[in-house]
## 1
Amino acid sequence: SCVHPDRPEPLDLHLGMFLPTLLNQATPEQMERFFTPAWNLRIIGTYAQTEMGHGTHLRGLETTATFDPSTQEFVLHSPTISSIKWWPGGLGKTSNHAIVLAQLHTQGRCHGLHAFIVPIRDMDTHVPLPGVVVGDIGPKFGFSEVDNGFLKLEHVRIPLDNMLMKFAKVEPDGTYVKPPSAKLTYGMVFIRSMIVGQSALALAKSCTIAIRYSAVRHQSELRPGEPEPQILNYQTQQHKLFPVLAAAYAFTFVGQYMKDTYRRISGDIHAGDYSQLPELHALSAGLKAFTTWAANAAIEVCRMSCGGHGYSRSSALPDIYVEFTPTCTYEGENTVMMLQTASRYLVKSYRQASVGQRLQGSVSYLSEAAAQRLRPRPVSGGAAPLSTQDLLSLVHLYQRRAASLVELAAKSIQQELQRGRSQEEAWNHSSIDLVRASDAHCHFVVVKLFVDKLEQVDDAAVKAVLSTLALLYALKGLADNSGDFLQAGLLTVPQATRVSARIKELLEELRPDAVALVDAFDLNDRKLNSVLGRYDGNVYEHLYEWARQSPLNATEVHESFHKYLKPLRSRL
Ligand SMILES: CCCCCCCCCCCCCC(=O)SCCNC(=O)CCNC(=O)[C@H](O)C(C)(C)COP(=O)(O)OP(=O)(O)OC[C@H]1O[C@@H](n2cnc3c(N)ncnc32)[C@H](O)[C@@H]1OP(=O)(O)O
Ligand SMILES: Cc1cc2nc3c(=O)[nH]c(=O)nc-3n(C[C@H](O)[C@H](O)[C@H](O)COP(=O)(O)OP(=O)(O)OC[C@H]3O[C@@H](n4cnc5c(N)ncnc54)[C@H](O)[C@@H]3O)c2cc1C
């Protein structure tokens, strides 16, 4: 499995997508021919799917692979400017091969997107091969260590055996043999599953830095005449950071669950059982979007909670943000992923449950909700009593919110259809509700997994503090999304007031354990790479040392004085 590197590197795609794609989609002969040299870095590959004109819409990708039976070759071609492969990591200058996703044409028919191994640079000289135009796409928001590149193919010929043929095949006479399931060629589920763990790591690093720094930073005055307090004693600072701490623990458990689920279901798939692939796709797509959006926002909260020094690269928080934020875009743009989970899974499951089907997996609650709808509603109809202490009742509340939002989205589609809109228009005019339904479903999954995890904790003291974190995560989510719960009749205004009061109590309860809880992530100083987050808390001396090392301080008088300031002065 992939251990996520701390910083983006040119080999990330080789290790994170080229090798796993071979493992998932190459025949044994192709494994022999490509995997071994790739493992030894003779072959260095990338995953070239996105084009200048299309990243999300896979069916719209334009690169073609046309089979020529007379030479037993595929001709790979970029027919338009928008078809130029654009963004693949390590493509610009590092890779000598690429797995190219192209529309397969054989015997005059197009069979959709398939994967082809295309040599792009000479194995010895590293010079681009004939017909290959390749380079770097230029400076980006971050990822400056990675040569994200472009690739233009001009009628490049590759052997028949360079098409990854574990599932789909092309016979020597050009006959196309369908894969057992069209969904097997999508891929990407592996990295999406791994990204959930990356969200947890980014949160753990950010809140470790911010909470440790908040324990050593003294500022302002709480009680007149007393010494300046630790900023971690301010309620607002706790309100910023402790929910991030709780989310870091929550996402750590979800990341473990996602990895285990990926392993389990991909094992079934290798054994020929594809039945769980829809659940895996929906779960990985939804949780990738949910956790990256949440982590992306939380990193910025941590940076700003460190004041000016948070903005210094010495804090590491700017780099953590810059390296993390593209996870909301790559490997499936988050909105699109949320729509996938809603449209391809939740609404489909809702409709199955509405006709009495017993659902399994993460949507089994929709069967319960469907049965509930058939039972007469209690006269009171009001919200059930709310316990701000009982985690299981909070899990149930999140479950009912998710069921309510899935029903709202499904009904919106129905209403749009009744207005005479087409299927596609009805879905598009319900897509805000669809995203909300996915968000609520993922939020329920995260809360449930957090509470489930507590059952596995034996140590009473650890279980107590983790339960406090789980309570904070659930109640803060309830407060942040109170509109959903109020709209669904799951919360009353007095209950919402009690939730806010309970959150304040939990912040106070967590204060004594906050530093120990980030120390428990066991992120050493080298991995954190942060002056503010140092384990020894010796921030100011090392901040001063860090500044003095800055290249600008190599000379007392910088050359710019003589080159610019002095001449400018003499002209004034
Ligand atoms: C040590 C090293 C570590 C390195 C770390 C790594 C660093 C990484 C750095 C950066 C790396 C960044 C690298 C990169 O960024 S790589 C490029 C990433 N690009 C994408 O993710 C593209 C996103 N777009 C899509 O996936 C498709 O276009 C979607 C899905 C949106 C629509 O698609 P389409 O319009 O064709 O189809 P449909 O919606 O009608 O759905 C049709 C059916 O297919 C099922 N379906 C759909 N998708 C999947 C799936 N995936 N597995 C299984 N099933 C799937 C679906 O449920 C439905 O089923 P049913 O309802 O008919 O039953
Ligand atoms: C740092 C980085 C590394 C990358 N590495 C790779 C790589 O190694 N290999 C590779 O192949 N690609 C890579 N990519 C490309 C990445 O996968 C795409 O950028 C991503 O899939 C999004 O596609 P897009 O850029 O076309 O955005 P678009 O899909 O054009 O998104 C733009 C907007 O349109 C909206 N939108 C699009 N479709 C829909 C829809 N159906 N419904 C509602 N809204 C929609 C989106 O929500 C978004 O708001 C990388 C990108 C980045 C930033």
## 2
Amino acid sequence: MGFSTIHLSEDGWSVDILDQTLLPHEFKTVRLTTMAEAAVSIRDMLVRGAPLIGATAAYGMALAMRQDPSDANLQDAYDRLLETRPTAVNLRWALDDMKAVLKNCAEADRESAAYDRAAHVVLEDNSICFGIGEHGLKLIRDIYQKKGGNAPVNILTHCNAGALATCGLGTATAPIYLAKIDHIPVHVWVDETRPRNQGAALTAWELGRSGIEHSLITDNTGGHLMQHGMVDMCIVGTDRTTASGDVCNKIGTYLKALAAHDNGVPFYVALPSTTIDWTVNDGVKEIPIEERAGEEVTQVRGLTADGTIQTVTVPPVTTCAANYAFDVTPARLVTGLITERGVAPATRDGLKSMFPEQA
Ligand SMILES: CSC[C@H]1O[C@H](OP(=O)(O)O)[C@H](O)[C@@H]1O
């Protein structure tokens, strides 16, 4: 991709992350040297996206073990990293994975074991992204051929479930990148994704770098495009998918799924297995929805005509805003779940057949 979202620095222990709050106008890395810094980078969304949050938390545990490998610090690091963001289940999954490995290690071995396991989390995500790409590519190819093999496939995506959200090709974007390699023409409708504009600031940036044709649209445009046959499929990411196939993703995803269902547009979710929460069934009732600061809604950051970065307030300064960061799309609105092992129906049986070891 030409950039790394997270990697071990040359000193072999500190961790460099791409500060995504500065994109697309500034490209800067931040060096994490403590667990606390890793926690802040997740909470303040310097890193974001379920898989990348998990990977950053894993390295946060490694930084903690380097500082103090005691049982008490292991638990403290687990708790403080877990509380950074409540919705993406990869955070809990990665922390549980690290804790399971570390608690059985002698204190003297915990630092090296933690760094090894964190590196494994990164490599596994990279592999999962590629698997999602391969299975999603088949769907894109099918649509391309049904259109006669000479017109671009128009794909709508929401937020950023791209390389920037992961340690690899992305989840929703992986099939798109592989289609480019396979010379299948694709055009992506990029939802700007208010309030933090992950689509406008992140997806547009990464697709542009990769030479993928795309058009930025407001979050309210997708339904109109679907009514006029301008969307061949939707592919979105997920932060937590329940055992029965309900999909929690960036706020606004549910509305896109409703429009897709109403217009007969296939609605796919790119789902790494690390984002499945096998402990919950009803997404609307059971998944905690993060509420973030109202300033993310009332303020916008961008590039001025003279090339400076500024933040402005749009509504009256006295206006208060509600800022729900995610919503839940019921499984009935999902055409299929693109996992690293294949495309599964958005049902309990569909997921169990794909991941029988979880049954
Ligand atoms: C591949 S997970 C991407 C997922 O994460 C985003 O949320 P956030 O930017 O707040 O971390 C969004 O829901 C994406 O679909």
